[in-house]
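batch_manifest entry 22 of 60
target: Myosin light chain kinase
source organism: Thraustotheca clavata
requested by: lab member K.T.
priority: normal
notes from requester: please return tokens only, no post-processing; we will run our own comparison against the previous entry in this batch. if the run fails, retry once and flag.
--- input ---
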Amino acid sequence: MSPKNASRSRKLFVMKGFQSERSLQGHPNIISLLDNFYDGKHLSLVMDVAEHGNLNSYMETHGVLSEIAVKHIARQLLSGIQACHAKYIIHRDIKLENILITAMNGDMPTVQIADFGLLTNAHPLSHCCGIPFCMAPEVVSGNLYAIYCLLTDEIPQAGFLDELDFSGMTKAANDFILAMLQENPHKRATANTLLTLTWFMDQSELTEFV
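--- output ---
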């Protein structure tokens, strides 16, 4: 492919992502795209400002978050993922750097999913996108792996389930992680299922630890 055609193809790809992301506007946990400009060489996207940075930089400063804070964030992320999947949109690159913090209420962040540059419409995927450490085995369900990083400050590795240390976590959080990180995609819970688990049903303070 010539550089000119490659540039045009990339522009069309980005514009497809822009249009898909625009279709999700209005959801509180997906970044708002306000406009776009193309000068013949560069495509610029205008979006809301995330004054508090991203979750990766936040954790570098504050360390591992409390389980209550992670549950608060996880509920927002799963709500955003639900909205994507309802429109047959798969992000394919959800990682801490792409989760932006738009507001803070004490130590409880309000977050939005950003950077839809690798999105696709829902269909079986066989090629890899994004950062390998942030992807599930078959790519698509990698949408959920970032939540594990929030709870543990660790990157999930292949075959790691038998070595997980759940000390300091509630039983409900333990069950949530196991449902979310099943290596067999047919056993792995969807965003819809995860939101019905006990971890999200209990609104009281977390006291029942493993």
